[in-house]
Each structure stands twice: as C-alpha cells, then as structure tokens.
Amino acid sequence: MFEQRLTFTAAPLELARRLADRPYLSLFWAKQGQLAYLACDPIAHSHALDPEPELRLGHGVDSSQCEVPRWVGLLPYECRRDLERGGHGASRDAPHVVEPHWLRYAAVAEIGETGVRVLGDDAAAVAALAGRLGAPESSPGKVELAPLGAFEDPELHRVRIRRALEHIRAGDLYQVNLARRFDLRVRGTALDVLARLLERGRPPYTAAFAWGPLDVIAVSPELFIKTNVSGSILTSPIKGTRPRGSDAERNTELARELDSDPKERAELTMVLDVERNDLARLARTGTVKLTVPPHVEAHGTVLHRVATIQAELRPELSRHELLEHMLPSGSVTGAPKVSAMDLIAELEAARRGLYTGAFGYLAHDGSLELGMVIRTLTVRDGQGHYFAGGGIVADSDPDREVQETLWKAEALLGLLAKN
Q: What is the percent of the chain with per-residue pLDDT over 70, rounded to a whole number?
C-alpha cells in the first residue's frame, strides 16, 4: 500500500468538488460516519455480487491500512428478486438500478478529523489523486426539484396497507415493509443535491455517487452489515419512527413515546428475530448475540429505534454466500422474508431497484461495510426516484403509516419549497 498525506485540510464536499469533472466520482461516509472516502477514475468494473472472490479476509495487507476501500459498490434489492415465488411486478417499468455494480479504485482519499491521506495499491494513482485534490474547488451549482407529475394518491398506499393487514390476519406472514415512490424532476449534480440534504444534519451512511448516467444521493441512518478480519459481523436494523421535535424537551417526549409504543416495539422485535435467524445460518454455533439493545437515536429529521446484533462467521463461508444470504435485509422486507418479498412485489406500484439494497465498500483486507439504501434518491436523465416506506404489523394504522412515509421523505420533499 502507498500513502500520501495532504498538507492542507478541507471538508469532504469541498474536496469532492475539486474532482467534479472526473469520471465515476464517489463520496461516502463510513465507520458510523466518522470517516469520509473520496475516489474517482476506477480501474475496473464488476456486476458480480462479489467483485473479487479471491480476495479473502486478512490476506496480508498492512493492518494500519487494511480497511481502506478497494471496491465501492451498489447492491440493489432488484438483484435478489429471484427469491420471489409469485412472479408479480415483472412487467412494470425497469428501475434505475437492476444489477450489482462495483467500481475498483487504485487510490482513495480518506478524510477525517486528523486530516486527509490518499491511499492505494498503485503509487501513480495515489500521486495523481493527491495532485487533483490540490486543484481549485468548483463552485456549487443550483439545485431544482419538482414533482414529475402528481405524486401517488395517499389513498393508494392506504389500500396497499389494508391488503397487507388482511394477509397478516390470515397468517400468511407477520410483518411486511411496504413503500411508495415519489417521482421528481431533478436539476443539479449529485454533490449539490447532497449538500442541500445535509443542511438538516448528516446521518452515518451518507453518499453521493456520480456514476456516468446514474446519480445516487443517500442520507441513510442504517447499517446493513459490517465485517472485519476477525470474522465478526454486525447488523443494526432500524424500526420505529417519529418526527424530530422543535426543541430538546419535545424530542425527549417523542423519543419516550416511540420507545414505549407497543406497535413499534413489536416491529423491531420481529425484525431482530429475522436477522438472528439469517445470521445463525452463517455463524459459528452460539455466537449470535444482541450486543446493543433497542434504543432511540436521532437521525436528520426523524427519531428511530435501533438495535445491533453481532455474530462470528464460519471460516469456510465465502463473501458471495454471505451477501446472497443476507440480501435483502429482513429489516426492509419482513417476516418471513420470502413471503414478505412476494407480497411487496404484488402490492407495490413500482419495482424497487436500488431501494432497500445496500451500498458501501469492500476493503483491501476483504472486509465489508455496507449501509442500507433508504432515504436515497436515484437519478437518470433528470428523473429522480425516491422511496419511503415502513413496516406493517398486525396493529398498524393505515393513516399513521402513510404519515410515516412523509416523515421519511421530509428531508427531500422539503427542498421542493426552497427552489
């Protein structure tokens, strides 16, 4: 590995704007939002679930640099639709992202509180990226968002929820995560849209990808999975939502209400059971544990209940097997997972594409860190897709669930009034 430390400091978005004209620009935060990574000019592409199977955990990279991104990837919900049994939704319009897409970078910039360093396995690429980061910053551009036609009538989502409740009462499943899509006309770069969204705060899994014809802007609060060289895996499902209050006292009141709500508690409990079962099939016997109990966290414009499960993976398990088994997460499908996916395909008006898949990186040591694709806008040819949904359980109220989709879309839809 090669490393070059920069003699100046700058914020991640400022540095990214210095690379605005470079191909396949990636800016994303990781390590629970503690570090940002920035890269451009990939040297390889892959549409496989695992872009480099021969890269095994702990293959000898210097431990001080082992977790540096090697591949940056988008893993759409769509790539696991083979799990569905009903065949619903196949005739609907193709979404923005269908296949996995990984980019291999020979150099990345790591931006943290202690400064900026450029790292990679190619000395020339490291030097070139470091040089480009010293260039002048491009000026922020204008962002304009507008509805692309009328948004879906909220009553259609209420009907969707009522039908899901009928299936739950019939015993077909216990929980299903249902979403509605907001279609927007988008003018502005991925970096500029992200800058506007960050005015309300930065969640831990924030990203802007400008990948050719596709822009992805994510302000996700949720960790999908994180693995390390010791064979440990973490997942932190989120379930339960309230809007943030106007002051600390109101926030405390709303957090208390969220944490004690029977419906919200049941929703997260069911998802934790799904995740435990998924991990138990991949882990050493007896190692699946709840390491962080359910609690309330504030993210952007909303409050959420979140918990963390940890396990120790079986050493013979391949990364492809891990991703194939864990995608899509039970957090964004339901329980049982396949039954929930069948119902999602039947009831939702649009195919999900990237939504409720994963994004993040594969490091040089073979470890993964992937955020959940929620609170995410995808854009092609000026047309943006943004999904918002929630978990439906037996005592869900359709009106409340429709309102929850608006809470989750507030950060983006709030920009419509600020054009």
A: 97
CATH of the domain at 342: 3.60.120.10
HSE-up (13 A, CA, CB side) for residue 56:
7
**Which residues make Cβ contacts (< 8 Å) with residue 257, sequence separation at least 6?**
242
Report cis status (omega within 30 of 0) of the bond before 243. no
- Reading phi first (left if > 0) and then psi (alpha if -120 to 50, else beta), residue 201 is in left
pLDDT of residue 203: 92
Helix extents (H) in 184-318? 190-197, 248-260, 262-280
- What is the sign of the dihedral through the CA atoms of 406, 158, 359 and 32? positive
**What is the number of domains present in the chain?**
1
Query: Exactly one of 222, 275, 369, 401 is catalytic; which is it?
Result: 222
Which parts of the chain sit beneath pLDDT 70? 58-65, 87, 89-90, 417, 419
Does 289 participate in catalysis according to the annotation?
A: no
226, 239, 337, 408: the active-site residue: 239
Quick check: 173 and 336 in contact, CB under 8 A?
yes
**Alpha helices per DSSP H over 261-386:** 262-280, 319-326, 337-347
Question: What is the spatial distance between Cα 90 and Cα 345, in angstroms, rounded to a whole number?
Answer: 8
Tokens 């095994």 belong to which residue?
56
Instruction: Say what the pTM is.
Output: 0.94
Report CA-CA distances (Å) from 163 to 81, 90, 157, 349, 387: 21, 20, 10, 14, 19
CA distance 238 to 271: 9
Tokens (6 digits) for 111: 């931006």
Q: Is 337 a catalytic residue?
A: no
Residue 146 sits at φ, ψ, to 5 deg, of: -150, 150
**Angle 26-380-354 (CA atoms, 0-180°, nearest 5)?**
65
Provide the domain limits for residue 338: 2-418
